[in-house]
Write a structure and sequence with these properties.
The chain is mainly α and about 300 residues long. It has two domains: about 150 residues, TRAP transporter T-component (Serine Threonine Protein Phosphatase 5, Tetratricopeptide repeat); about 90 residues. Helix content is about 75%, strand content about 0%. The chain has 16 helices and no strands. Helix 2 runs antiparallel to helix 3, helix 8 packs antiparallel against helix 10 and helix 11 runs antiparallel to helix 12. The longest helix has 29 residues.
Length: about 300
């Protein structure tokens, strides 16, 4: 979901919020605006300017957080905030960290912490949405993750995915934070439940996440073999219209195995893709291609031996 498409009825609601004298009227106006802003649209997903989106998102997210103060259990609002903060951190902050390490180590550490905290914020919004739908969910998740996740119905698959995606990404950026690392079983329970409910959701996004999740290796419970299987499924479900699986496999499996040939072949495939052939996925593909370029630019630093 994307939070910043302001429609005429949102503007009307905003005027109502400003001038409403009665508490109930004001709350109704706020809810109307929250409903409209949480609907999502194709406006951002089809955008061809990632930098413009990067600059626009923070204002929109803070606006939605302001509305959440008035409507703390508004689930569409919570979901939009979970997806928005996760997407911003993963697309615009985390990709800069590795390159910064070579030129400004202190700045790279600051950005790593910033991204991790933003992802934890996103996770908490997703868990709040699940708590609103399933009272006692968060406590139950800590006690028995698999049993707690099994309560969640297919209508709430979005909450499962964004909770797992934000949480898992925070852990990957905070491997020195043992309080986070020990929470991997909760992430796994959430994403496995989403997988069971509908593994084809959102053009294969669950499989794309599992490429990364499984790349943690055998010693940590992962599997490069399973990561490759999820890559094939993600490509099949998306009909090859998303570059994300290509970049995910390159960055998380090929790199871990120090297979530079495969690494570059996957990134070249991602860069050769024409985003205009999938306009509804234009933004995510452009962001994926930008990541592919970043990885190719620092490939010499990533591989112990140059196989060229």
């Amino acid at each position: 979901m994307h939070p910043m498409t302001v429609r005429p009825r949102v503007a009307i609601a905003l005027v109502a919020v400003l001038f409403a004298s009665g508490c109930s009227i004001r709350k109704m106006a706020v809810k109307t605006m929250a409903d409209a802003l949480s609907e999502g649209s194709s406006g951002y997903s089809t955008d061809n300017d990632p930098e413009l989106v990067k600059e626009a998102l923070p204002f929109g997210l803070k606006t939605l957080e302001g509305l959440l103060v008035e409507l703390p259990t508004h689930r569409p609002l919570l979901r939009t905030l979970a997806s928005g903060f996760t997407s911003y951190a993963v697309a615009f902050i985390a990709p800069e960290i590795r390159a910064l390490e070579e030129v400004d180590l202190e700045r790279s550490r600051e950005q790593r912490v910033r991204a991790r905290l933003m992802l934890i914020r996103a996770r908490d919004y997703a868990l709040r949405s699940l708590e609103a739908g399933y009272p006692g969910f968060r406590k139950a998740l800590q006690e028995d993750p698999v049993k707690a996740a099994a309560r969640v119905k297919i209508d709430d698959i979005e909450d499962l995915y964004w909770a797992a995606a934000s949480w898992g990404s925070a852990i990957s950026l905070g491997k020195d934070q043992m309080g986070l690392v020990v929470e991997v079983p909760m992430v796994e329970a959430l994403i496995r439940r989403a997988y069971t409910l509908n593994d084809a959701w959102d053009n294969g996004s669950i499989h794309e996440f599992l490429i990364v999740f499984e790349s943690r290796g055998e010693a940590s419970g992962g599997s490069y073999k399973r990561a490759r299987e999820h890559f094939e499924k993600a490509m099949t479900i998306s009909k090859g219209r998303k570059v994300g699986p290509l970049v995910a496999l390159a960055e998380n499996v090929s790199l871990q195995l120090q297979d530079r040939k495969e690494f570059e072949e996957l990134l070249d495939r991602a860069l050769a893709f024409d985003p205009e052939t999938a306009p509804e996925l234009r933004l995510v593909n452009l962001i994926g291609q930008r990541r592919a370029k970043q990885l190719k630019a620092i490939a010499d630093q990533l591989f112990l031996e140059d196989e060229k």
